[in-house]
Amino acid sequence: MTTKTESFVDIFKEKPKGLFDFLSSVFSSSGSVSFIYNTKAHFIITLYIKEKSGYAHFESIYNEIPKNVASRGTIQSILDMGVKLGIYTKLVYPNDKRVKLYKLSKTASIEVDRFFENFLELSKNLNKK
C-alpha cells in the first residue's frame, strides 16, 4: 500500500528484496548487457567465457556446454551476435590463425561480477532470516 508521500514510481525503484525479485529484475533487464541474460544458453556461455579468462575457443565451448542447453549452431549464433553487440571480443589464437578465442568485453565482465556480488549479498541476507 502506498502512502501520500510515497509515489508509485518510488516503489519500483527499490532494490529487489528476494531471490525471485532479484532474478526477475536481472533477466528482464534492458541495458546494454541484457544480451547475457536472454536465455540460459546465453548466460552459461558467458559464464564459461568468463571462467576461461578470454581463452575460450569455439570447440571448447561446444564440448563443455551441455547438449540440452544449446546446439552447435545456437552456440555459434550466440557468439556471433555477442561479438556484433560488443559483449564478446574475438581474438586470433597466436599459434593457429584458424582458432578464434572469445573474451568478455570489459562491460560484460563487470556485469557478471556485479551479478555474483549481488547474488552473494542476497544469499547472505536470506540466510540471516
Would you mind describing this structure in some detail?
The protein has 129 residues and is mostly helical. The protein is 54% helix and 9% strand. A three-stranded antiparallel beta sheet has the order 1-3-2. The chain is elongated.
Break the fold down into its secondary structure elements and pairings:
Layout: H1 8-12, H2 19-27, H3 40-51, E1 56-57, H4 58-64, H5 72-85, E2 88-92, E3 100-104, H6 106-128
Antiparallel strand pairs: 1-3, 2-3
* Percent of residues in β-strands: 5-15%
As for the number of domains, it is 1
Helix coverage percent of residues? 40-55%
* Uncertain residue segments: 1-13
Derived structural class: mainly alpha
Number of E-state strands: 3
How would you sum up the major sheet?
A: 3 strands, antiparallel
User: What order do the helices and strands follow?
Assistant: HHHEHHEEH
What's the CATH architecture?
Answer: Orthogonal Bundle
Largest sheet, spatial ordering of strands: 1-3-2
The CATH H-level superfamily is: Winged helix-like DNA-binding domain superfamily/Winged helix DNA-binding domain
What key phrases describe this protein's structure?
mainly alpha; Arc Repressor Mutant, subunit A; 6 helices; elongated; disordered N terminus
In short:
This protein is mainly alpha-helical.
